[in-house]
Prior knowledge:
Chain A is of the alpha/beta class. Chain A is 31% helix and 15% strand. Chain A has two domains: 8-231, 3-Layer(aba) Sandwich (Rossmann fold), CATH 3.40.50.300; 247-393, no CATH class. Chain B is α+β, with helices and mostly antiparallel strands. In chain B, the strands form two sheets. In chain B, strands 1, 2, 4, 7 and 9 form a five-stranded antiparallel sheet that branches. Classes of the chains: A alpha/beta, B alpha+beta.
Amino acid sequence: MDSSGSSYAIETINLTKIFxxxxxxxxxxxxxxxxxxxxxxxxxxxxGPNGSGKTTTIKMLLNLLHPTKGHAFVLGGRSTDPAxxxxxxxxxxxxxxxxxxxxxxxxxxxxxxxxxxxxVRKSRIDTLLEMVGLAGLxxxxxxxxxxxxxxxxxxxxxxxxxxxxxxxxxxxSGMDPIGTRQIKDLLLELARRGKTILLCSHLLAxxxxxxxxxxxxxxxxxxxxxxxxxxxxxxxxxxxLTGPLTPEAREEIKSVIRRxxxxxxxxxxxxxxxxxxxxIITKAQASxxxxxxxxxxxxxxxxxxxPASPSKAVLEQLVAKKPQPAAEAGPAEAAETxxxxxxxxxxxxxxxxxxGKPAEPTVSPTEAPTEKPSEPPAVPKLSVRQDVLQKLxxxxxxxxxxxEQTRRPESEEPRNAE
Amino acid sequence: MRNSWAIAKNTIAxxxxxxxxxxxxxxxxxxxxxxxWMLTGDGTLLxxxxxxxxxxxxxxxxxLSLLTxxxxxxxxxxxxxxxxxxxxxxxPIARHQIVLGKFWGAAGLNLFLLAxxxxxxxxxxxxxxxxxxxxxxQIARAQTxxxxxxxxVAPQTxxxxxxxxxxxRIETLRKNRQLPDLSMExxxxxxxxxxxxxxxxxxxxxxxxxxxxxxxxxxxxNSVMFVRYKFQAAPEPPNQEIFGQWRVGDFRQFRTxxxxxxxxxxxxxxxxxxxxxHSFTVPGNAAADDGLVTVGFFNSPERNFSTVIFDQMEVLYxxxxxxxxxxxxxxxxxxxxxxxxxxxxxLSTWLSFPVATLFSLMxxxxxxxxxxxxxxxxxxxxxxxxxxxxxxxWFLYAIPRFDGPYSPTDYLVSGEVLSxxxxxxxxxxxxxxxxxxxLVIGIWIFSRREIAKITV
Lengths: 418, 456
């Protein structure tokens, strides 16, 4: 609960937006009686096809549009309140940035509006530029940037104030897979540090990877809402992942399952294309320079520490699994039995850098040898640059140097939406 | 304040990248030195100085006014067009701070440019006498008529006396049953006009005196004062010239029959063309200790057969130096630029860039001839006058005047002092009343409008 007393980071009550025609007659009902509730400290996926009312809702939350009816509360108040606005980071669906400013000037401009002192601004700008992979390009005018690079700067400006609430509209739009992976990783880290994130995206795989809960809009109305796992879980199926087995052992397993009166399907797991792509580029980066954004100096730089488990795939290292009963396994794709991904637990170094807090000493489930599903080809492990995140976000350390826990323990899942 | 300053800085960063800003900058950097070199006026040093100051101040004022309008109208419009406003508005910044920041940015940049180019004009003006190698007498004349600040004093006119005479004439006409078939208001207005013209007229073989109060030239034996006048002649003389005998001094001395005058009374004879501004110099000691100076004109019947009607008659005497006066003139120009910045920003909160620019230009050009329009339209007939009173008159009164006494050029060209009082009054009306009103309207609209582009 926030200090304001509100239980929700975002709350709308019968929020409605009707766009009139020239004569003032109702023409389009963009949002109708929306009762959206986003809890503190969760990543909420706000989904829906084009024209479903997602962006209109966000614009009403941020007072860019006036509701026709209903109310929108953010962090327990109105976003018009400067004290509330100072705790919000917003990345619009397109990078609405001043093209004549350099990246550094852009961040400085927004830092000034947030009232950050000059030394803090400079420090955060350096950190953020490094984090988004544009450290060497900070003096280049934004007008010369590619769309993906603009998204990176857009994200950096959204983080300049160390916001409690991040509202991201298509944050990975136009970004390459590595950038996308970095953004997702950053979101997870931020969420683990107690930030609330409203994520609006068409890339369902991204949402699935990072969100605690999702809501799907259509025609201006909320169609369905709930925890991702609960909505996607096949409750009447079970997935077991093993190492190599002999044909005899497989037959034996099948026979056991048949005796139980159930069915069984055995396939070999395959990587996601994203994982494969990241592997290829990671190898290429080691031998070839680039004039564009440099992931190696940004989040990927934070994540590029020597792998704790060299045999694990990059993606799997980033989105670590936690041990859980097989019955709680996540969604299995139709034709493959991929390892189930639980709530990811990315490396903590990055956030440490930004927040100034040492990451809590949690044990990654992936490090338990008994839980390793397979041993993919060795790739550099992406580790989080905690020192950078720590610098950016500031930290609250206990007297013994321990970090204040702001994120709900992973075992505690958010309550379902009512 | 902090937020507005960030917006202002960003507005300046945007403005200096505008092509019109570069064009204005380059144009002025080239034209000002060229004008200082090329403009020669009537060939004298004074003419050259007057030509340069007139054209350079006018050019700088005009181009910076256009730049101010362009920057102020474009800045907010650009933020809406590329939607950067969507991002800015979500930050902890009040909407009025955005409007004020844009205003400060647009005004600040142009004031900075004004300061820079004013320094350039001042430097070039000061350099012209040295570079022109003019003879001593021309340099001396330039010193007394250009590199000075002269107070202009108009003659005392007794409006009460005029009104009294008109009432007497009306009474006479009434007694004689000669009142024309017009309303009393029209009769009174006509007679007033006649009486005022009569007050300015000098028939052949007649003389006229004008009393000037509060004239205190410096107590310097070399100080001078100036009598400046303009007249027309009816009928037109064959050679277009009027011969006149002038006396300047404290006439009370010979009126009271003093044998020895305490202050000298100077006399001179001049033959001059009608409808042209003329002036002559008299020593400063012609003024009485109490500040009274009387100027007398005798329309000599031996040389003239026309009635001379004086449209303008004034005495000027030095009260200060060129530098401070130049500074005040620049401040008057600054008032104009600040108003235009507020106008552009206010309009762009609810109008598109082309419409806001056109409207601002209309206000600017109307301001340049505002006084002329107001004087012209006052003489309209009953029906047109009624239409005018309820429509355009309000608009003309609402916009500031940039002409007449509000034109900065005239002060420098004629070496007239621009008083702090007048400057303060102009700033009070233009900035405190008109500019604040515009900004309040702009902020009110901007605070209530939906910022985001409506997409469904």
